[in-house]
Design a protein that fits this description.
The chain has one domain. 74% of the residues lie in helices and 0% in strands. The chain is built from four helices and no strands. The longest helix has 27 residues.
Length: 72
């Protein structure tokens, strides 16, 4: 938890909005990969890695928000 506490909230938000949504056009990669996951077509290792890469900033942001809510 100490590692999570060292990440500033504004950096977590910035990472989620940039890396988490890049590329922005024609649609965010995370959205495309989530649609593939739901459809059952997320089978190639590169696609799974891509989902993990674009989901990581969102997971860090969610963990920081949950931790902030529980600490207060």
């Amino acid at each position: 938890m100490e590692f999570l506490d060292k990440i500033p909230m504004n950096i977590a938000v910035l990472a989620a909005l940039t890396l988490g949504l890049a590329p922005f056009l024609p649609e965010p990669h995370i959205w495309e990969k989530l649609k593939m996951l739901v459809a059952g077509t997320l089978t190639r290792p590169i696609d799974i890695f891509d989902l993990a890469l674009h989901a990581a900033p969102w997971l860090v942001l969610a963990a920081k928000l949950v931790r902030a809510a529980l600490v207060r």
